[in-house]
Fold this sequence. Notes:
The structure is a single chain. Helix 1 (about 15-25) packs across helix 9 and helix 4 (about 145-160) packs parallel to helix 5 (about 175-180). The chain has helices at about 15-25, 75-80, 105, 145-160, 175-180, 195-210, 230-235, 250-255, 265-285; strands spanning about 1-5, 30-35, 50-60, 85, 90-95, 115-130, 130-140, 165-170, 185-190, 215-225, 240-245. By secondary structure, the protein is of the alpha/beta class. It is built from nine helices and eleven strands. The protein binds iron/sulfur cluster (2 copies).
Amino acid sequence: MKIAIASGKGGTGKTTLATNLAAYMAESGSVVLADLDVEEPNSGLFVRGDLLVGETKYKMIPEWRGDTCEHCGNCQTVCNFNAVLSMADKVMIFPELCHGCYACSELCPTESLPMKRHPMGELKHFRAGQLDFVESRLVIGEEQAVPLIRQTLDYLSAGFSEDVPWILDSPPGTSCPVMEVVKDADLVILVTEPTPFGLHDLKLAVETVKHLDKSYAVVLNRFGIGDDGVLRYCEDESIDLVTRIPNSRAIAELYASGQLLYPVVPAVARAVADVADFIGNHLTGRRP
Length: 288
Ligand code: SF4
Ligand code: SF4
């Protein structure tokens, strides 16, 4: 029961929906919320709890051994990610670019590139009542989000039953990190806003989830600004529009002060209830 909350672009209210939905659902049962926007996780600004686990996550990268290297250049040739530079007198590794594929290490004729652990981020697990909150954060300068996302999903798989709803706060956009989160989801909720930018990026996000053959639906945030392009698009494409969250100064002020919205703003309470009902109906096969 994995629900990915995604969006074609940042700043549409994806984290607002994920945190409020998770906290709302945790009032009636166990819920897991995971912030997988590892380059810039911010669900923790709104969800607090007791820290249960804090651990460093590692990826494997090669380490050059100059004493045995024969300077054949093979490592640079086989690396598809430009993470190895083989020069006349030494080999340089760029850990930020390395995907840990082992190719250079395995194909080095003199075993001069043994793989070593390299810290790439931190994972933290908090608990607040029936809500388990897991977030991972990439080390600054680290460029590979996917390995940390994968390890965070592995952490969830090892620790939580899939009978419990998992709310996965995805990275924004339509690139590899989003794919990594969305590819195993049972349902993808795409959050957008009623502007030409919002519509443009929603279309890209829809193409992505269609490509992955995922069930999906749309939540329209900041309803009241912009135009009706998103409404018309959803209608024309027969896309489920689950709910609309109104644009409001009160919501913006509460968000800026790091508060959950649904306990205070009735319109948000209705919206998260709509989404929770939609998820329940979808997963039991009773499409609204
Ligand atoms: S493949 Fe091995 S021996 Fe060849 S340049 Fe790279 S590290 Fe040196
Ligand atoms: S492990 Fe793979 S990605 Fe990393 S440097 Fe070697 S060949 Fe390149």
